[in-house]
Amino acid sequence: MIVRYANHTSLAAVSDSSLAIVLRRSPRGLPEESDFAMVEQPLGEAGDVLVAVEWLAMDPYLRVQLAGRHLAPPIKEGEVIPGQGVGRVVASRLPERFPVGSWVVGALGWRERGWLFADAILPFRFPEEVPLPARLGALGMPGLTAWAGLNKAGLRAGEVLLISAASGTVGLVAAQLGKARGAWVVGISSAAKLEALSAFGFDALLARDHPDFRIRLGEALPSGFDVYFDNVGGSVLDAALDHLRRGARVILCGMIAQYNSDERPAGPNLGRVIAARASLHGLVVYDHLGEHEAFLAEVLPLWRSGQLRVPEQIHRGLEQAPRAFCALMRGEVLGRALVEVAGHA
Amino acid sequence: MIVRYANHTSLAAVSDSSLAIVLRRSPRGLPEESDFAMVEQPLGEAGDVLVAVEWLAMDPYLRVQLAGRHLAPPIKEGEVIPGQGVGRVVASRLPERFPVGSWVVGALGWRERGWLFADAILPFRFPEEVPLPARLGALGMPGLTAWAGLNKAGLRAGEVLLISAASGTVGLVAAQLGKARGAWVVGISSAAKLEALSAFGFDALLARDHPDFRIRLGEALPSGFDVYFDNVGGSVLDAALDHLRRGARVILCGMIAQYNSDERPAGPNLGRVIAARASLHGLVVYDHLGEHEAFLAEVLPLWRSGQLRVPEQIHRGLEQAPRAFCALMRGEVLGRALVEVAGHA
Q1: Is the Cβ pair A133, B314 closer than 8 Å?
Q2: What residues in A contact B71, CB-CB < 8 Å?
Q3: Which of A332, B128, B202, B302 has CA atoms 20 to 30 A from the CA of B218?
Q4: Distance in angstroms (rounded) separating the CA atoms of residues A139 and A145
Q5: How many beta-carbon contacts under 8 Å exist across A and B?
Q6: Residue-range domains of chain A with CATH
Q7: B226-237, pLDDT tens digit by residue?
Q8: pLDDT digits over A325-345, tens only?
């Protein structure tokens, strides 16, 4: 239910209250407008800076916060939606850091005005020429996200960069930065947006909602990808993992595929990996055979001193190998199962 | 079906044939002894070195190779099982690299003797004091696997190290090396092995087959883990991901949980991450807010030149925010959705 007020800007300029949009009820599945309500709220007095909001940005992560699954605290019913925005300081208890008239960015909230604490906002340090919308988009937090992700992935010229949710701000910036850095860029989006996306320099574009998506992904990545910038998780991530090049890096940045769902997806929950800034590394021992001397230098002293011990379950005779192997696969072995072949027929 | 031969060692020493264990039929689920057969085979002439096998090691990865899902080529019916072993060179066409009487290690195969190519074997460089079984275990490939994994994870003193399949050779070496490096080590194994494992210095041990495993894992990791050495995948990996500390590293080394299954597990297939030596990294933009100047230094020139563009969908008036957000979550936005608040009541 949206309550509309006429002439509320003049009211905001003089009164001790502000219009704000609050959570009316937690969305189930896709959010609806009736999950929100516009109300008039007293400004209160708690906070360092009174900010007049000029622009608000719509971010998918708010959906996760509404569900109580984000890093930031959950949004409760009746609370102002804590969306990102830019605004101007209209009153300040920290005038040196936040002088009246200066610009700030942060989770200002869906409201006209509000008192905010200093730790929730940052002063703008943008060149004057950059318009406010760009400060909230390509040159703001989503752009920084794309840039930081490509840096973390160590994208190099000539590599193949795959991007999901390629039509979002993060995806679009990642794609164009990737091209500028000399990568071959493959984008994934919904079929409805592919035509519009074709103007943004992608080397290939794929519809995730096409019935042959998995086949087409393989055709677009004949030798796999080096970097996957993943904003969606779910089945698209799963399909992408079929095309990892050796040494590929996957940046887990968002899980839009599951934002609207109350169900936890099947299998390992990689959303936790994002929240923890964790990393998962595939290990194949063959890559380390050349390090055997360094390995022995560390473990041999431990082995000699008895600090390193592994029980051995020894079977005598080649013909025992199948039995030994089957027992191992039934989980019956502690330590190492070995077969002594020579001299034990 | 195992065919037993009497007195075959003397036969092997003189004849042009060797006893060998071949795959009789591809196992379904848990392998059974009847999936293998012992046969007498001609030695043939192809190869650089004739090796007499002395010891064979039983490795879980062979199960994956039997299913045709390993990095190494699948094992076909009628082929010798290509298990790891140590043996002695009894004839050599490369006598400088592999003199007769010298030791070699590699996938020698489940057989008494066989011709092998030089690229499939390595000469031993072990101190004489190390007995052959240890060369195939704690001080061999599984030990190297554990050591390389802890190195890749960058385990530091004082960190919490979690290990699955803690009763296997890789797990036991990882645990004892972890203790030697000053970590707090938590092991996961089947309940049947916990008592025997208690002699190996673990700080805590957990039964993965206990009905309260997930609860107990949380109790054993009150502030999470820094490094998880994962040998099993599946539901244990999934449970572990609930306890990632910030900046945690997961080493994906094996997926025993799914080795005996023909079914592909639900969710993202992390087995591919192992094969590709790939890495997955969680990204949270908040960690990068301090890099904003460096970000602008790269993107602002691109933005100025028009190489970086993001379409903006601008809504006028605070009351439009719910509509703008709901459209975003329905996937209807290309680029950035913004609400202009000031001056648009």
Answers
A1: yes
A2: 284, 286
A3: A332
A4: 10
A5: 493
A6: 8-135 (3.90.180.10), 141-282 (3.40.50.720), 287-340 (no CATH)
A7: 999 999 999 999
A8: 999 999 999 999 999 998 644
